[in-house]
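Data availability (excerpt). The following record was deposited with the supplementary files.
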Amino acid sequence: MNLGRMLKARAAEGRPVRAGLIGAGKFGSMFLAQARTTPGLHVLGIADLSGARIRDALKRTGWDETQIARDLSDALKSGKTAITEDALALINADGLDVILDVTGSPSAAIRHCLAAFKASRHVVNVTVEADVLAGPLLAKRAAEAGVVYALAYGDQPALVCEMVDWAEACGFRVVSAGKGTKYLPEYPQSTPDTVWNYYGMTVEQAASAGMNSQMFNSFLDGTKSAIEMAAISNATGLKAPRDGLAFPPCGADELPKHLIPRAAGGVLEESGLVEVVSSLHRGGSPVARDLRWGVYVVFEAGSDDARAEYTRRCFAEYGMITDKSGRYSALYRPYHMIGLELGISAAAAVLRKEATGTADAFRSDVAAVAKRNLAAGEILDGEGGYTVYGKIMRVEDSLASGALPIGLAHKVKLNRPVAAGKAVTWSDVAIAEDDTVKFRREMERQFAPKKTAAA
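Predicted structure:
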């Protein structure tokens, strides 16, 4: 409620929140567009593998050459912004408060997080793939260093975490929470060659807009949804559906009628789940008042007794949409603004020492599942590719089956065939024990249920 005021006070004192951005893609560019006009926020530096890409991002978002510093030291003194291709130099720059990782690479993000913790920097991890791969251990390492580790506000997981927190702070029981997306049953088999047909675009149109086919395919084939819901689960205590996300067609007005347990007339196997709702009916027609760009939380007044009757009556008196019993209701947000809202996380971490969502347990995992029959010798190409998609699983099921995390299913060779629809396992692949794999294994040892913890 007071971040804007606190930022203005820091601006007046000449002590801005100093942020370092790693990654100058679309998400990072959206942050830069608003950082330029946010009082009390100084982008000390931007790191990317390509300095030219940084300059292009700055130009697109309204910055000019007069705002670019000679180097990081000059940026601290002048209040300008430095450009560098050295992420570690940015992380260790004098005066830096918080790092925003927007690389999209789980391995790179984990390296940057650990380096930032060592340098006593707060971290906002936009690379949710890294959070799902090893978030609980990253959060623990941050706490040990006395800094904040946070999911990124503006992205759906942090927004859903906020809604769940609101409901619980009000004394409601959270029944379900998640987001909306465009989904049909054939989407999990989509590849970068077919993705633009589903989006109603030509290859040429996508190329002219600078759109990456594999990244957009990860949104379409359900992988990104699984990753985001796992992050929410690990940060809130909500559970994954046993058989993975069902993507039920559901509009905003139907949330408290459908996203409740089957025993109460809904579609969920039980209460307390993450789920993604589709903006399309199974036949392809649009859902009324869909939540394709939004997030939601469904909550209940309480059990059917006199103590909950007054709350249910208030639901009706104040025009809230409920199920037929009046027991369940919902709040939703129709849009998320991605990088335009990322500054909230940076300000919250530095000024309030508060995370906009952070993993506190290992509850859900995302397994790599074969899109088609895969042959021995094939190379997995990660999320959004031609070979696998991500499926959310409860951690006890993932670890018991030896499922390979989607975050590690990139440039990995299969030792043996895997049938379409089957999860790829650790024993199916030849994978090097690099630092990322070791960090994931350590996370399993520390946070998995004891009976299924990795050896």
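Summary of structural features: The mean pLDDT is 96.
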